[in-house]
Write a structure and sequence with these properties.
The protein is about 70% helix and about 5% strand.
């Protein structure tokens, strides 16, 4: 049953991807069924931006659904919620009125909430996982409340609940547009996982099954970015400069915060969740730059920044889905996500290790994979800030550039840790020593997604102009990205260029030359057996290796003002003499500033207010009758 559901979902994803690509190429259509949904009926419309995100969701659902066949096995629990989750995500970009959007958005949130709880029931820490589901439910419904508030204001001011009428409505005042944009930005940023609305993401992603985490991180949070693009460039256009500055700063803070927490975390899936916050920050930086350039009447630069943001949206969907699937392979083969208990898996899970390495290189923004290309384009757009007339906006761009550069460097360290501690050296536990490779469907899905990461990089000369054409529907401007000789991308009037075929040939030469030398060397083997000098060691053991905590300790010391760690050292000495140590346990846990400074005080205030409000619910029928009487009297006075 579950395999059939996942197979049908994969077919649905393939059909949706084809329809989305057709929509990107300019094949619009509309569908309206008045009786299906109240208050305006169900209304769906396809345009290039909706087509891009429909194609993104559909393309990601295909390998993830194949992966789920092997990951879930014969487990029926959660398969129907998974299918509903994918279908709702496909409807969200197509929604053309408030009611259709609200229902699809809420159905997507509820289905993912059920899947998170499903992972909580199957996990080894049900209390922590249930808490993750609760936090996710609170944050997603708080975001929905902000979205509905902003949309209802637009509906009241424009007299229509159709999105097309908002874009064509008479221009609202700057204050009204700013109020609605702030509400919509809060709602969409809560789903995207931007700081400080990110608290649900590192809790829910590790709790959910790995194939669900792949879709939540790969495509669901991108629908928050989709909403920001609709609100900033369509519903509330023309954009205001402070919108762009806000997105730039929030994106930079999200990128740095996410990667800093990724470096110090020892849970493999939570590390990837924090990395998703970093990549959402990169997308928000590109989006903020596009908004700022559009507000400054620089449409060509806005188009360049928007194309870079959309490219990173697509790239992140590929490599983060791959990484979560590979992490699921590790969990499937070892039964643990704790990197302190892993190690040596490259020999026991070579397919999983190779696919994780591809995703790690892409996520770290290293050439020649796809993460590098979109980050490179983002930097090219940001470095054009010298053309902006406002000094304050230049300051926001400078901070965004510095934050993005810092995040890019730290991301390399985070994924060196993730791959090295998990797959290299010797096993640190019996679970790692007895690990087994993932089933065939899981391996097929991971290899296909890894190939997609390579294709997205090497095909940049075709992909970027296509994304620029989608961006041009939001920011009408001549394309600043052209394909020159040798398939070179010329950016903004010869400001920069990039030839991916040349990079591919250089990469192929760099790989094939060592392989050729190895083949020549093995043709004339000379076996020399001798004992390696071991510096006095008789045996290499796992206790001599770096752990995840040890690797992250230098970063914890450098950024101690941010982590504010509370080091704990436990030394178990022999009862006869303290000089004979039997065991040393060292912990250096970090604290979350946003939780301590924002959410915990807010929680105390809400609990205090709830305790005071509880007096109203005394349980006395006489008091409740008095409430009814007072309400009737007030209604009579109003009437």
């Amino acid at each position: 049953m579950s395999a059939l559901v996942y197979a049908l979902t994969a077919l649905l994803g393939a059909a949706a991807a084809a329809a989305g690509v057709a929509g990107m190429l300019g094949t619009p259509w509309a569908l309206r069924i008045d009786w299906l949904v109240p208050l305006g009926g169900m209304a769906l419309e396809m345009d290039p931006l909706a087509g891009l995100f429909v194609a993104l969701v559909g393309a990601a659902a295909v390998p993830v659904s194949v992966y789920a066949i092997g990951y879930a096995g014969r487990e029926r629990r959660g398969c129907l919620a998974y299918a509903v989750f994918v279908a709702a995500m496909l409807v969200v970009p197509l929604a053309a009125n408030v009611m259709t959007f609200a229902l699809a958005w809420e159905l997507m949130s509820l289905a993912s909430y059920v899947l998170v709880l499903d992972g909580a029931r199957a996990g080894r820490e049900p209390a922590a996982s249930a808490h993750a589901g609760w936090v996710y439910a609170v944050m997603t419904h708080a975001g929905l409340a902000c979205l509905l508030a902003g949309m209802l204001l637009l509906t009241a001011w424009t007299g229509s609940a159709r999105f097309a009428d908002w874009a064509a409505a008479p221009t609202l005042t700057a204050g009204a547009r700013s109020l609605v944009w702030a509400l919509l930005a809060l709602g969409f940023a809560a789903k995207a996982g931007g700081v400080p609305l990110h608290v649900w993401l590192p809790l829910a992603h590790p709790a959910a099954p790995s194939h669900v985490s792949a879709l939540m991180s790969g495509v669901m949070i991108k629908l928050g970015v989709y909403g920001l693009l609709r609100a900033s460039f369509v519903w509330l256009a023309p954009a205001l400069p402070w919108w762009g500055a806000t997105l730039l700063l929030v994106g930079a803070v999200s990128a740095v915060t996410g990667v800093l927490y990724a470096i110090v975390d020892r849970d493999l899936k939570r590390l990837l969740a924090f990395s998703s916050i970093e990549n959402v920050g990169i997308v928000l930086v590109g989006t903020g730059a596009a908004v700022a350039f559009a507000a400054a009447a620089l449409p060509a630069l806005a188009l360049l920044a928007l194309a870079a943001a959309l490219y990173h949206v697509v790239n992140h969907a590929a490599f983060k889905s791959l990484l979560f699937m590979a992490a699921g392979g590790v969990l499937h083969g070892t039964g643990t996500r704790d990197m302190e208990a892993l190690g040596g898996l490259i020999k026991r899970q070579p397919w999983t290790a190779a696919c994780f390495l591809v995703g790690a290189v892409a996520s770290a923004g290293l050439p020649p994979l796809n993460g590098f290309v979109s980050e490179w384009l983002t930097f090219q757009a940001l470095l054009q800030n010298i053309r902006l007339p406002q000094p304050s906006m230049n300051l926001a761009f400078a901070l965004a550039i510095a934050g993005l550069a810092l995040a890019a460097g730290l991301a390399v360290a985070a994924f060196v840790k993730a791959f090295g501690i998990t797959f290299l050296a010797l096993p640190r536990s019996d679970a790692a020593a007895g690990a087994h490779e993932a089933p065939v469907p899981m391996r097929v899905a991971m290899v296909a997604t890894a190939a997609a990461c390579a294709g997205l990089a090497l095909g940049a000369s075709a992909i970027v102009p296509a994304l620029a054409a989608v961006a041009a529907t939001l920011v009408p401007a001549p394309a600043p990205i052209t394909v020159g000789a040798w398939l070179t991308l010329n950016i903004s009037g010869d400001f920069a260029s990039l030839s991916m075929p040349a990079v591919a040939l250089a990469l192929a030469g760099g790989i094939l030359l060592p392989v050729l030398l190895l083949v020549v060397a093995r043709a004339r083997p000379r076996v020399r057996r001798y004992e390696t000098w071991g510096c006095g060691r008789l045996l290499q053991t796992a206790r001599m290796e770096y752990t995840a905590t040890a690797f992250a300790d230098p970063f914890t010391r450098v950024f101690d003002f941010f982590y504010r760690p509370a080091a704990r050292l436990d030394v178990d000495a022999h009862p006869e003499s303290r000089f004979f140590v039997r065991r040393i346990r060292y912990e250096n846990p970090t604290r979350f500033i946003v939780d301590e400074w924002l959410y915990r005080p807010l929680g105390r205030v809400l609990r205090a207010a709830a305790q005071r409000a509880a007096v109203v619910q005394s349980g006395s029928p006489n008091l409740y009758l008095a409430y009814v009487l007072v309400a009737l009297l007030l209604l009579l006075l109003v009437a």
